[in-house]
Structures are given as C-alpha cells and as structure tokens.
Amino acid sequence: MDRTYSFFTHRHNFAVWAAARASQRSFTSVSILKAALEASELPQGIQDPSKWPTCADQFDIFHRFYCSRIADHLRTAGVANVSYGRAAKLVAVYLKSTVVVSEHARSTFADIIHPPIDRTLLQNLAKDPRFDQQFRRRCRSLSWTGLSELDYFALIDEFRRNELDKPAFWMIERYWDPTGDADG
Q: What residue spans define the domains of the chain?
C-alpha cells in the first residue's frame, strides 16, 4: 500500500484532469496541461488556507501570477495559441475542483475565485434581459479561447459591475449548463 498517496494528491489528480479537459478544446494534451499547472506551483500555492487571498484585488493578483506562469510554461513547451483565456479556464476549473466544491466552499477564497468562462456561460448571460444591451452584445461576441489578459479582466470587471460576483462568484454558474447547451 502506498502511504504517500494523500487525499490532497487524490483531489489534485482529479482537479488536474477536470481542468485540463475543460480547457484543452483543440489545444493540447492533458499531460502538457498537467505539467503546466504543476510547473506554475498553483497546487502548492493553495495548500495553506491562511495564505489565500481574502479580497477581489488580492485574488486578481494571485490569478495573474499563476496564469502567467502557466502560459509561460506552455509557450516554452512549444504549445501554439496560448491565450490568457485558456490559462484562466485551467486555473478556474482547478480551483473550482479543489476549493469551491470542497470543505472550503464557504470560505472567502471560494467566494472570490473567478468562475470558469466558456461559450455556454457567455451565451446564456447574453440572453438575460436584466443586463444592458452593451454587456449582452459583448458576451455574445467573445471567444473565451482567445481572451487576452486585458480582455479577460475587462470581462471580470463587467461581471462585478453587474454584481455577478455577489454573494459569491461561483453563483454565476447558474448561467452555465453542463451539457454545453447555450439554449438552455
């Protein structure tokens, strides 16, 4: 029996798989995305809850740091079409799997983590008449796989202006459909 296989390792392996599968769309392999996540040291960066960001500004800095490290690793590995949007999706799904849907679900950190952004989420936001036409048009026109860092954070700021981060950012996923059906 391997006693070095911990629950953290178990959850990490699942989170890596889920994050890689969610962000790999016509991109690269799970093994390369796993290597990028691990090279970024994000798993180590979340092991100590006392060091987690406690406000949106801190989380944005945290997010930029790890997405940058992931993107750098992917480029060094020769992966083409590396975008901030792809790195952000990898980080978002990893954090969703390790923090948001864990025993830490009610933490401030879980509440401020950016949601995974994809076509389904954006298209369903674009259909909600509660939002102004400009926001809805922007959601319809965006492709998450091509988001630059500037575009990504402009979108996060728009989500916040529309209070989609309240009471917790993960709740925006009421606009997401696990079947990928943007009509649902």
A: 7-112, 119-175
